[in-house]
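Let's practice the habit of predicting before peeking. Look at the sequence and jot down your guess about where helices and strands might fall. Then scroll down.
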Amino acid sequence: MSDNLLRPRRSVLYMPGANERALEKAKGIDADALILDLEDAVSPDAKPEARDRVVAAVRSGEYGHRELAIRINGIGTEWHEADLAAAGAAGPDAVLVPKVNSAEEVLQLVAGLEAAGAPDTTQLWAMIETPVALLHAEEICAAHERLTVIVMGTNDVVNETYGLHVPGRNPLVLTALSLSLLAARAAGKVIIDGVYNDVKNLESFDAEARQGREMGFDGKTLIHPSQVEPANVAFAPSEEDIEHAQEMIRAFDEAKAAGQGVVTFNGRMVEELHIRDAHRILAFAEAIASR
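Done guessing? Here is the structure:
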């Protein structure tokens, strides 16, 4: 499994790029990744100043283990080209682009990053959040190796399909999540679940985060620091998970060494795929511990 797939991104917190106090506070929040936002969180008249502030934050080197992504304004907006050039030149861990609708747009964005002098370490992250993108998710995910992370824009999915926000998420949102997850996995990309809007309802947030983990997502985007710790817990292997993986690997290795054809552990058949998953769990737990 690639290092990118193992890098912890359990909690990915949006921070408003125009808010200097928020950017300072983010240095002490235990999120795996921060998205310094120039899009929805910034009013039109504040976008140029926010761009400068976010670039300075990235260049400060004061965010420790936290992966830093800059969310720029989308293709076709009046701020897009300046955002892309400034973000690429700043060299963050990633540049996140909203409403990416095609493989051609991915290639356009990669060319823009390269023209801006973005270092090879700056990844492209793309948001899938429109019906067009969902119908072309596989092409988007496979378009270029610089695209490493898919971020779900579930609020926009609900908005553009005229759906409703309901507990457990409506069937069309679940379909959108599933299609995007399959596309990301087919292309070997990381995929992050969308936001949960009711910041005061941590019980329902926890349920949605665990739903995302059960579906196979790598983490969740967040809109408030109070959501960080529940997301970190939901998307991390528990102590029980780690112990179970270790014991299953040990039992499998001993059974194979003894020449057993069919291996069982705790009464269940164990195959190579189960052992691969157990090794993935242990490798991810190690990556979290060494973060």
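How did you do? The beta strands are 11-16, 33-37, 67-71, 94-97, 123-128, 147-152, 190-193, 219-222, 263-265, 268-270.
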